[in-house]
Design goal:
- By secondary structure, this protein is mainly alpha-helical.
- The protein has 2 domains: 1-41, no CATH class; 57-234, no CATH class.
- It is built from 11 helices and no strands.
- Helix 5 crosses helix 11.
- The chain is globular.
Length: 241
């Protein structure tokens, strides 16, 4: 219904065809979240941050979380390369990926802002939160991450999204806040767009290959990120951490 409304009203609202899907996603998720939060008696503030640790304290995790991203993207790149070597991407699916990545500012806004916020609200804020109340920690984390992967509807994104979903779910379980996961999710999507653009700049025939120095830098970055996370969590007195 929302799709029909947005499509039919695009003539006088000025919404371009490239923006229609994003607008529909925002509106439909807003209806979903509003209904569920009303049913649960929750506020949006509680959905985003329900920890006893202050929001400002939690936002200190931004730096170590960002330090994890280069290593995460290296792992996703290697695993994605193995998967594509075993099962090459069909032409139709590749065109979908290209359209997702090549729409300039629209792609950046959708992948780095709209999708991370809405998907974290749904998969971590609602689904994982519910799973954690019913199942053990790792069953809840893995179950919600697999659902996140399945929601992407193809085997290539399923692999990457499930891994990202595990990390975002782990961050939520540790902090009871969506903000660390949103930052990780947004930065991961942004890095994927950057790698895609670098591949296209080389003619699109050969994927961008990091150097040995880049691998070493990502390893050090990830190690520093994990160290800082452990230090910050160790200094918190919140029993939920």
């Amino acid at each position: 219904m929302l799709g029909l409304l947005v499509q039919d009203s695009s003539r006088w609202t000025g919404i371009s065809p490239d923006e229609v899907d994003a607008v529909i996603m925002v509106l439909s998720n807003a209806v979903l979240f509003t209904g569920v939060l009303h049913y649960k008696g929750m506020s949006y503030a509680e959905l985003f941050h329900s920890s006893a640790v202050s929001r400002n304290r939690t936002l200190l995790l931004i730096v170590p979380v960002l330090l994890l991203v280069p290593g995460l993207e290296m792992v996703l790149g290697v695993l994605g390369g193995w998967l594509e070597a075993w099962q090459p991407v069909p032409d139709g699916q590749q065109r979908i990926f290209d359209d997702m990545m090549a729409n300039g500012v629209h792609s950046i806004i959708t992948a780095c802002l709209v999708a991370p916020v809405l998907e974290e609200m749904l998969f971590r804020g609602l689904i994982l939160r519910s799973f954690l109340q019913q199942y053990s920690r790792w069953v809840a984390i893995l179950g919600s991450a697999c659902l996140f992967g399945l929601a992407h509807m193809n085997i290539y994104q399923f692999l990457c999204a499930t891994i990202v979903g595990v990390l975002c779910a782990w961050l939520y379980q540790k902090t009871r806040s969506l903000w660390p996961g949103i930052i990780l999710h947004s930065a991961s999507n942004g890095a994927a767009i950057c790698v895609y653009r670098m591949t296209v700049s080389k003619g699109g025939n050969v994927a961008w290959q990091p150097t040995a120095g880049a691998y070493m830098a990502t390893l050090l970055s990830a190690a520093l990120g994990i160290y800082l996370l452990r230090r910050l969590w160790a200094s918190d007195s919140d029993p939920g951490l």
